[in-house]
Specification:
alpha/beta; Purple Acid Phosphatase, chain A, domain 2; 2 domains; 5-stranded mixed β-sheet; 13 strands; 38% helix
């Protein structure tokens, strides 16, 4: 058995669905649905999530992939969850009409395999491979990269179950306060990164709740962008220099905001080599304090987006570089955090990995 045996298993056994430039796919993960009560971490983003799904992704013909930890079965019973979010399940199933709907399981909802009356059972799989012009995007939750979490009957997994069910839930500890340390999250991401480079594929995961785009964290991207702007300044003409100076000011404000407002664990670099090979993406989570993140694949592009209740506040604090766009008159805003052409991403993987 090799270090990557479990990830290799996923690559070779996953259901494969072909996509092309006309395809539209959205990937979200880590909803951690509860019973609708005060300890349900998803509740404060419930209306935002349902509105975004219905008015943006369902209406615009997107297929949907839920990439694990959708139900929080470590804390709540499935019957209580299904009762609280019955309407949401109807909405999820409606995506089957757009193209495809798949529900991947994570370590917090792996027990769904024992529930034969589960409403989304027909869409439940461990992983999914998307084939784009001969290249592979492998979607899986991410816990499979850890030997301690992949086996639900292991001592570690059972201990985590009892910790969350009988300690975290009664005392109101949230998933991001009891999740992995920066070191453990980094180790999981690095394993997926190295496997993806060896296999020359894109891996899209969740699990760590930390959004990644092209193997870079937010901090990495800002530093990378700042360096590129500085390199492009000398050969630029006067008009171009003025635009570069303005963008450098925005990037610097963004970096300062990261250090001023960010938790130390969120500021760790996501880079695992001197050269960032764009082989790992992470859709983040849907239980953020002010919004949720998602991965979109559309028109041959892949992008990381942020949905929030208050786009103007996010913009004014220097938290995002791209301007927010309101979804109709919903009061909810979409912000593109980063995007790139899939062709370019795969070219970099093949040339650098």
């Amino acid at each position: 058995m090799t270090r990557y045996s479990n990830l290799e298993r996923l690559l070779h056994t996953s259901e494969t669905i072909g996509i092309d430039r006309a395809s539209r796919v959205v990937v979200v993960s880590d909803l951690h649905l509860g019973d609708g009560g005060r300890n349900d971490e998803f509740r404060h983003n419930g209306q935002l999530f349902e509105t975004v799904l219905r008015q943006r992704y369902l209406a615009d013909g997107f297929s949907l992939v839920l990439n694990g930890d959708v139900e929080e079965l470590f804390k709540f019973d499935l019957q209580a969850i299904a009762s609280a979010w019955d309407g949401l399940y109807d909405l999820l199933l409606a995506f089957g009409r757009n193209g495809f709907f798949r529900k991947l399981y994570g370590n917090h909802d792996q027990a769904l395999l024992d529930h034969h009356d589960y409403r989304l059972a027909s869409a439940l799989v461990e992983s999914l491979a998307l084939r784009y012009e001969g290249q592979t995007l492998l979607l899986f939750h991410g816990h499979q990269a850890s030997p301690y979490l992949n086996e639900p009957s292991s001592l570690f997994s059972r201990s985590l179950f009892y910790l969350l069910r009988y300690l975290a839930r009664p005392f109101g500890f949230r998933n991001y306060s009891v999740s992995y340390s920066s070191r453990k999250r980094f180790a999981i991401e690095r394993s997926v990164y190295e496997f993806s480079n060896r296999s020359k594929i894109i891996s899209i995961i969740g699990h760590t709740h930390r959004p990644l785009f092209e193997s870079m964290s937010k901090l990495d991207y800002l530093n990378y962008r700042l360096e590129a702007l500085c390199r492009g300044y000398a050969p630029a003409d006067a008009t171009q220099r003025q635009a570069i100076e303005a963008e450098i000011g925005q990037v610097r404000a963004e970096l300062e905001s990261c250090y001023r407002n960010g938790f130390r664990k969120s500021l760790r670099s996501g880079r695992y080599d001197a050269i960032a090979i764009p082989s790992i993406f992470n859709s983040g989570c849907c239980i953020g304090k002010r919004g949720l993140t998602a991965i979109e694949i559309e028109a041959g592009m892949i992008r990381l987006v942020y949905w929030t209740r208050d786009g103007h506040r996010s913009r004014s604090t220097g938290e995002r570089l791209n301007p927010p766009e309101e979804l109709g008159q919903s009061g909810f805003y979409r912000i593109v955090l980063n995007e790139d052409h899939l062709d370019y991403v795969f070219s970099r993987i093949h040339l650098l990995a």
